[in-house]
Design brief:
With about 850 residues, the chain is α+β, with helices and mostly antiparallel strands. Helices cover about 20% and strands about 30% of the residues. The strands form twelve sheets. The protein has a seven-stranded antiparallel β-sheet. It has a six-stranded antiparallel β-sheet with strand order 15-4-5-16-17-18.
Length: about 850
Amino acid sequence: MAIKSRRTVWKGKKVGGYIFILATALVSLAVVIFITATQMSGQGLSEKSLTDECVAGVADGDVTVDGRPMLWKLRNESDLTNDLNYFISGIEYSSGLGLTQYSFLGMGPVNDSPYGSVRQGLNSQGLAVGWNVLDDGGWQLLNHKALGYFDNVNQVRVYLNNMTNLSTHNYFIDVDGEAVLWESQTGDGQHWEYNTRAPARDNQWIDGDNADGDGNYATGTDVNLSGWVVRANAPGHFNNDGTDDLWNTDRYNVGRDVVGSLVYNNGNGTALSAKKLAVNFFRRDALALDNTVSNMIVQGVLPDEDLRLSTMWVLLGHTETGIFVPVWIHGVESGGSNHVPQYLNNRDDGICVYTPAKSMQNEGYYEDRVQARTLPFEGQLFDVVNDTLLSDWRSRNWSDNSVVNVIGEEMKRVQEQMDYDAYKLLRYLYDYGSSSNYAPTVSIDDVSYNGMEATFSVTAGDTDGDEFTYRFNFGDGQINANATHTYAQNGHYLVSCTVTDEHGISQTDWIFVTVHGSDPPAAFNKSSPSNGETVQSTSPVLSWGTSSGATTYEYCYDTSNDNACNNWTSNGTSTSKTLSGLSTATTYYWHVRAKNSSGSTYSNGSNIAFWSFTTAAAPPAAFNKSAPINGETVQSTSPVLSWGTSSGATMYEYCYDTSHDNACSNWTSNGTSTSKVLNGLGTSTTYYWHVRAKNSSGTIYSNGSGTAFWSFTTAAAPPAAFNKSAPINGETGQSTYPTLSWDNSSGATTYEYCYDASNDNACSNWTSNGTSTSKTLSGLSSGITYYWHVRAINNEGTIYSNGSGTAFWSFTTAVALPDASNIYLPLIFK
């Protein structure tokens, strides 16, 4: 059995007396820090403030050790213990608000009605609230509204700014990392928001370590207030610009200076942690009062983490003599409607740790004696939660409901066991005196495997020299004292080892183990589509390498870039999968894992190593040509080609030629226009044309085919210009049988001539002359002027000679001579 007792020598290390030395060192450290805090604040343990005076604060990730926001609250009351209650969603806890949307943990006085006033708490959305008394007002409504109905600080901000009856100090953090504090006094008309990152706070400083030696901690310049805010509800302490009044004293200055020292560690830049805050702020300064009734510290989460990992540290008992234990709302929810650990809720069994712890304070037990017994115990709780539990839970697949259910059960088990251990220690100190017993210590150092068998190596000790017993909970329902355990099936288990001394005081350590009888599948990688690739098809093929030992592969894909997926699907032993029905122009994220009876191995070495591919946009939609109609004869040699719109097209191209071969080589871009005017075409020519639409995903041809060319034929040209030639214009002495002649007109199919004796640029007796370019007239009168014209005609038109329909020429016939046969001359005889 690999268990090391308090006097066992293991691997060359003597553990006997170790805890005593550690406790002594911690006591010394406690005294040093306490003295420092007392000096800083100018206050001592003898400070007595108002009975309802509370102190609280918030810090954002800029000043916390892990980048997660924090909220803390120390609540004082005259003599009123507090309970932690679970408020399940779907119930109206405060009149007028309706059914709650979110469940939450709310802390309030035990004498309030069930599910009554909530003074502070954490909801299932990771929104936490702290509250300090300031007269009366609407704080009850605000706290119930915030925890039951809101999931971020901005929603609270809008709601709070609309409240007119509010006199309160409230503190909030959310999963987006926002940390703010509000102060509101209706009577004075004051309403301030203190945002930890407000620009005004960058210019404020405190001398947290009195570095300048002047004894005034408000005059130094080594601690910047940006990133955190501390408040005490009385007296008021705000300036008109919403910044801190550094000259206020008492508990506000105590909280401000002590936390400032924790954050900056005397200027060395050590960030704030829940452990440091609990040990150094709640215990070792002037805030350890005899009227403290409740405390909490809420550790938030990073924006990309599951909000169910928000951790609420609740103090069992009094500030000076209590112990912080963790509570996760997810663990509470897994246990039923109100499964708060029993010693945090007085109604569970009538036992409340507050009363004995307060009695220890009233009995005058020395602080160092109490802390020497409780602080090593408490420090172990913070370490195992932050280093073991949360780190493992953060790495789990929170999109898998079965995994989430397991985590909930683990959280429930952890908080119940830690709660039990802490209560037993405090109860014993109360019953038997502050110097009567030290808690044992335990650490699970290592685990070795032999197939399905796991053997745990444990170091345990007790400063008092007590004997102790072991109890292992192996996480599979089996509990016994043997450090070696054989698991029935492969899996990931939360194992605890609880050591109990002879006085019944116990302490527990935790470790996660992964058990498998054979090796899980070997490492392998995805292969295609390449990460970030754009694929043309909406039915791409996913492919990956072979994983040795795999009995099946599972693939998963979705459109959410969140490193998670919930639709894992078996693909048998095939290393490829053809998807179908994907959307165009969409990015998909995919992953593959190999499985066998020993576990799962994710491709590319990580369960969050998702690859992405983007489907191309859809190709252009079908469309048709519209004009010229197929086979049409067009009159113009500059026709307009036109076509319909193709949805998705980023460009159109047209092409035409005179070859009737269903092909074309001179495709030309037309941009996004759906028409094109051609120029310079030949007459009496048949052209063949086509149009296609394009985008980055492809090309679509009009009328459904790359060979669906349409044709049009240009009309023949009208007759060519020509001129008349004879008789020359204006010529006289012409025969009454003149011959009209003119030049040839290319393209003419017939000529028409016309003449008359009217000089009016018009003629009505046009006569066809066939294709002859001359005409001999007859029957003209002598001495008459005639006006004549010629025109050429074909199917495409008529052209007049000499370029104009009014370009008539003229000629004049000669005067006729008398007939000699009819002339009788007298005979004159002499």
